[in-house]
Amino acid sequence: MASGKQAARSSAIRKSRHILMTATTLGLASVLAAAAPAQAEEGSVKIGFVTFLSGGAAGPFGVPARNAAELMIEAINAGSVPAPYASTGLAGKSIDPIFVDENSKQKNADYQKLVEKDEVDMVLGYISSSSCKAIAPEAEKAQKLTILFDCGTPQIFEEIVTDPQYTFRTGAHATMDNVAAARYLADTGAKTGSYAGINQNYAFGQDSWRDFSASMAQIDSNAKIAAEQFPKIYAGQYGSEISALLTSKPDVVHSSFWGGDMEAFVIQGSARGIFERAKVVLTTGETAMHRLGAQMPDGTIIGARGPHGDLAPESELNDWFRKAYYDRFGTLPTYPSYKMAQALLGVKAAADKAGSTDQDAVIGALKGLEWEGPSGKVSMALANGHQAIQGTAYGTYEFDKETGKASLVDIVRYDAECVNPPAGMNSIDWINSGFEGAKCD
Amino acid sequence: MLTAVAIAVDGLGFAAWLFLSSVGLTLVYGVMRILNIAHGGFYALGAYTSAWAIGLYTQTGSTIALTYLIIPLAALAAGLVSGLLVERGILRFMYGRDEVLMVLVTYAIFLVLEDATKLIWGTDSYVSYQPAYWLGTIDVFGLPYTVYKFLIVGVAILVGAALYFALNHTRTGKLLLVVIEDREVSSALGINVTLFFTVTFVIGATLGALGGALTAPEISVVPGIGAEIIVMAFAVIVIGGMGSIGGAMLGALIVGFSRAAFVHLYPPAELFSIYLVMAAVLTVKPYGLFALSESRKI
Fold first, then answer.
1. B13 touches chain A (CB under 8 A)
2. Cβ <8 Å between A55 and B129
């Protein structure tokens, strides 16, 4: 017995030593890597990738994005992406990546290190709107081509950097998600007499609610706001907020929650019947639908911040991407993976078009560019050719208990010009103008 | 009326969670004078162990009832192993050092625990909702609440009562109060202070893990949850008076009810509510509501 205890204890100690040694080795490795001089392979393009590799956003966003980056880099370097991307590399040069964790208290310093010490040719990354707000001005100052691939706040080119030269965003901003959410409610005949919001208390959550409530006011002028909740990001406990939503009896609940916060809200909210009493719209719901399975209530309206994942239209490129991703990682790609692939293909399209990876040449080609991603056409139509727009889609969640499979039904697709503002117009002004010039089929 | 009831029930539920998550922190500070930042790491370890074990168990298709046994066992396993490793492996070599240095040491341990958690469980979220669902809901004035939430309130009361009884009505507890009062004199009287430190730290770690383990079925367990809880727990024990169990309970109730009131009555200030309460209490009682009296040594 005593020897059993001893064995267990020594096994625990061994495990702890293993963990500590692994941590030490990893730490040492990263120090050595940082100390090594930046030596890009001859004829390669060095790209700094910044996504969440730790913290709450790593699992649902950062790691799927990094996975997609790894997959796409290999495929682009090997020339194995389907046409029109079948040529090798970026204008013939292979991509040499450096991955950096976005979960950092010193994002600007990390960015400067990439630019000055690692001497990257471009930076591609940033999931959080807060990161983008900090990095966009930094990129302009450093005069380094920087591609924002995911973050949502429309503020980036409307308020923070109004005349971008070096910063691009290859995914549409959050206005699209929220205008389309309001349109979807109207198009599917949902009851919208009163609506409530629960969004995180920072740029993305606040902007999402601003755009959704403004769109609802335009689409159904009789609709009333029942409640507005802005809990702290990563709060995890939403008991009081759910009670406040229940007592205000809304017909619709809008949430741009993402990651662990969204999953916690679904668990706590569905246990207390909010999904039965109201139509719940989750603008980023697609990232969690396969993981939550039966836990996500049927009838929930799901978005993917673009026509990504289960909302992606069929195409050869999409089929290739889904299969390659599934074969390699054992799960289907969610929207952060799609947006990373979209960004890298945009860079490839620009470099191939310019026939060079020279920064000025790529910038010139990327401005106003149109290209095909796994989720369809992307156009750099806003912010003087620096901000992408694309079509989007919403669907309604359905879980098949027999097969254990989650799917989206009643999918409605929206053209890019139907749910994005026109060039030269701020998002909120466009919504308040009654979506002036919107082209919806 | 409905709002008042909702504030009362939500406040109580939030307070119970806060108390369970912070009582271990105040216990360790009271006995050892260590502001244990690693407490957040124990909370996360408890949550991951519980969510992982529940996930494994429910895959077998067996009755959900047994998951209520898995939760405390997971907390016990996580708290015992990590608490002992940290105390015996690191902290015992640091006793007697400056309190500020100990904050840095425990912060370093917290970072190691965060990485260890990531190495073991990865970055994907763990969802183990079954125990929170299985008991169903009860309506309070038409508002549905999960029975599991009331179970957490019950556990919080039980833990508070057990700690109170153990400290005030058992021989060991009384000896511990002596150690809290003066560790040098206790040592001179023949009390094994080192053993008390080890046991207290492991109990503190286990209570932290219990907070996480009980919360796991209600949330999505993701990297970084430990960092969130340490800020809240710190606010609670500062309001209540660092080192006081009763203080932690009162602090949790004050924070719980005030946050619920803000969410229902004035949501824009919810983020600020905890710090508003903290500032108000500290203005009147700079060392918290039930601060332990310090004997001055000459």
1. yes
2. no
